[in-house]
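Need tokens for this chain, all 277 residues.
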Amino acid sequence: MGVDVLVGGATDSELHSIARLFEGWDRVFSRFDPGSELNRVNRDPAPVLIVSKLFASGVRTALAAAAATRGLVDPTLGSALTAAGYDRDFSLLDDRDERPPGPTAPGRWRALSLHGRLLSRPPGLELDLNGVVKAMAVDASLDLIRGDGLVAAGGDVAARGGAVVGVPGGGSLSLRSGGIATSGSTKRRWRRRGAWQHHLIDPRTGRPAESRWGEVTVVASTCLAADVAAKAAFLLAHDGPGWLDEHGLPGRFVAPDGAVENRAWCEAARESGARAA
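Here are the structure tokens for all 277 residues:
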């Protein structure tokens, strides 16, 4: 998944189980391992495939995220990421790449169909499930810890029993239980023929999204819920804060000219301060 994983509160046995979980999920969902199940599925010309239970779970979760965000978080953007130049592990991307971006590839999540472990999709449709998989792995890893604990992967966090978490733009918050996730374009970005690209693809255009926000941080009941909402709010640009308010989710939005919080974030902060007093 190309991230460091931090675990707190786990026994040695639980830590070992979490390490195996991330290693196993990476072998299934990696875009950069030619032998991963994801790449085998994307290469297979058959219109219907039997996939593993774990892969089916990832597809099912991704389709639910697409439905909940009206297609903003789309699992069919594999070709669009490759077209933008994200065709190898992020650490290997070269800012001197003079190739132009490839053809646009808008999202087509409604073309996917999953029945149990039977996956059907049209020829040439390339999946990328990493819009949900990392957060799923964080939540699943926390479930492997019996007592209070914390799991963080690439800045996305799930915690039980309380944790202090830093947020982009400065400051920190106290997360009693649940998840916090940040999505943005300031870290995973690169140049292609001199133009900046990043990994958050707008499924409506098939190109890296244009958003007024550099980073969007969301707090929710799980890391998965926070991560999906953060991606959607980033893609919605000016409408992001209001969309999160409609869903009752606190969000912090960092732009070049400063940071703003939505109404739900401010209300949660006031409630927390009242309880502390």
